[in-house]
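Memo to structure team: turn this sequence into structure tokens by end of day. - J.P.
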Amino acid sequence: MKNLIYFLAFFSLCSCDPHDSRLTIVNKTTFPINYDFKFNKSDTVFDNFNVYINDAIAIGDSSRQSILGTDTWLRKLKQSENKQLSLFFYNIDSLKINMHKFNNMQTYFLAKKYFKVFKLNEKQLDSCNWVIRVTE
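Reply from structure team:
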């Protein structure tokens, strides 16, 4: 029985897909936010408005951003066109008010409806410990 418990514990640890959760977003604004990230100009955004609304980062809250794979944030950063991670932040209250004017989130993004942009290289991300504090 004891061996079975060890086997199940070992199996459950080994069967998990690894995630890279080094990036943390801290909302220091007076409204809920969400974001898009791009490593290359050709990267697209999710089309569904509700993804951004439902997964918003509340006022004063923080959220660890996971991406599938080991060291994926860093690997994608090093493989990107400009060796930068671009983060585009949305005011969710504004998104709710204006989303009826756009077909999808891609058109909202192309209309530059984000309120803040960070373009960070590896050195800048390391210096802030991969913690991005978003202010107004």
